[in-house]
Amino acid sequence: ADVVYHEYGHAINGYRYNGGSGMQNGALNEGFADVWAFTITEDPILGIGFYQNNPSGYVRRFDINKKVYPQDLVGEVHADGEIIAGAFWDTYLNLGNMQQTINLFKYLYDNGPDGANGNEGVIFTDVLLEVLYADDNDGNLANGTPNDNAIVSAFALHGITLISNAVINHTPVTTANSNSVISINANIQLNYAWALGSVDCFYRINTDTNWSHLAMTQSGNNYEGQIPSQLDGDIIAYYISLEDSYGFKSGITPFSANKTPNIFANVPYFILIGFELEQKEDFDFTIGFWQTGDAGDNATTGLWTIGTPIGSFVTPNDPNTLVQPDYQHTLNGSDCAFTGNASSSTAGIGENDIDGGHTTLYSPTYDLTNYLNPAFSYWRWFTNNSGAEPNADWWQVSITSDGTNWESIENNLTSDTRWRRYAFRVKDFVNINSTQVQLRFIASDSTNGSLSGGSLVEAALDDLYLWDSKESSTSIEAYNSLFKSKNLIKIIDLLGREIKSEEIDGKTTLFYIYDDGSVEKKIILY
């Protein structure tokens, strides 16, 4: 019966919404039809028994795995409608009264917030604002409404706040010099600027797990914060966050970068301090020996390959619905590594995505024995949130220095359909005094879920860069600071003679001996 209620809800949307002009936005149309259904049944599960081959299955539900804007926005109207419908289900739970929820909901039909597909951030925010107007009793939203906390907190569970339509213009900082503060700047455009509480930057250094808070100061629509200076050889991760006047965070940039545990967190921005580029693999102008596939791989389609990617779209040629990229990352390039092409850009998104297991890509092997403090950066694309079993499949990156033991760099379930840059220091994971350092990239379609790998999974990789840290000082104290886990005992030359750091002059090869028994060979250039 609730399927019928949903379909009749479409009739109400078409003939009653916004003075009878209907709805333009597909997610809003589907989501509001779901609201009509569950306000009748008062049940968060819709369509139980809809599928003949699965009597206990259902079409949609709103009590678990809540859909959140923007990370769960996939460009498919039924799936995207779950975000706004879920906000109303949680409003009902907070209010504890379905009739009260319906009274707020029906108010929307006269005021009609709407817009084209792809504008869900603006539309969902306008819906929240209209619900608050419906609840208001004195014509002044600035002093709150009788049930504003219940309403705002319910919508916030789904990433919808009074500032979730903010346009945040920020040019990521990718490199910086040591001993200099690092300015983080953003321009923020808001429809409802009065609802903005604060703008903040959060950052962490190297392997730190806790984020440090940095309040950003305002000048008109521009905001600035300064991360304190760091040492050569450090890597800073950071993200920008807005907070509304109710204390709810929104506009996380990059989205979900703040989440814990890390398997649910998106890639933040990375700043390399005092690093110089040594080698690059861009698949266009510079490419070494890459291995596509592993004997243990079990994916049946969507295997790693190197070439020119063909895009796949939920809605053909609509860039807002891109699943596999239709472009690579290298400037003036054409090729990258990706998980299989469909026959054309108009083919279904399930054609040659990863199915039935995992597929593996190996980087070239690197000799890092002459490096001081090497780091890798790479650009990656990963999506797993389309299809029947979203957000259940893994993107995994690991590193080895012996060809046998692998240490995890990324182990992630978060989809982001854009090129994102990851960076890390090698010494934080494996021994750098090795001739066989290698990276491994695995993308998978899980077969452990109830729908046996029902997700649509695509991955891509480009512009793998190898960096090395500058030597900003030759003092023993500086090296002790850089290699925090061990202390330098002495420096010797090729003949075994002890050298004082202040005596180093000209090009030479030296050996640094530490109290943990390790020895590092360094080629010094002055």
Describe the overall structure.
With 526 residues, this protein is an alpha+beta fold. 18% of the residues lie in helices and 30% in strands. It contains 7 helices and 27 strands. Strands 4, 6, 7, 10, 11 and 12 form a 6-stranded mixed β-sheet that branches. Helix 3 (77-95) crosses helix 4 (98-111). The protein is globular, with a radius of gyration of 27 Å. The termini are far apart. Residues 449-453 and 472-484 have low confidence and may be disordered.
Topology:
Elements: H1 2-16, H2 26-41, E1 45-46, E2 60-61, H3 77-95, H4 98-111, H5 120-135, H6 148-156, E3 167-169, E4 175-176, E5 182-189, E6 196-205, E7 212-215, E8 217-219, E9 222-227, E10 235-244, E11 249-253, E12 269-273, E13 275-281, E14 291-292, E15 305-307, E16 336-338, E17 358-362, E18 375-387, E19 395-400, E20 407-412, E21 416-425, E22 438-444, E23 455-469, H7 476-482, E24 488-492, E25 498-499, E26 508-514, E27 519-524
Parallel strand pairs: 4-12
Antiparallel strand pairs: 1-2, 3-5, 5-9, 6-7, 6-10, 8-9, 10-11, 10-12, 13-23, 14-17, 15-16, 16-23, 17-22, 18-21, 18-23, 19-20, 19-22, 24-25, 24-26, 26-27
Counted beta strands = 27
Class derived from helix and strand content: alpha+beta
Low-confidence stretches: 449-453, 472-484
The major beta sheet can be summarized as: 6 strands, mixed
Task: Give a short summary of the structure.
The protein has 526 residues and is an alpha+beta fold. The chain contains seven helices and 27 strands.
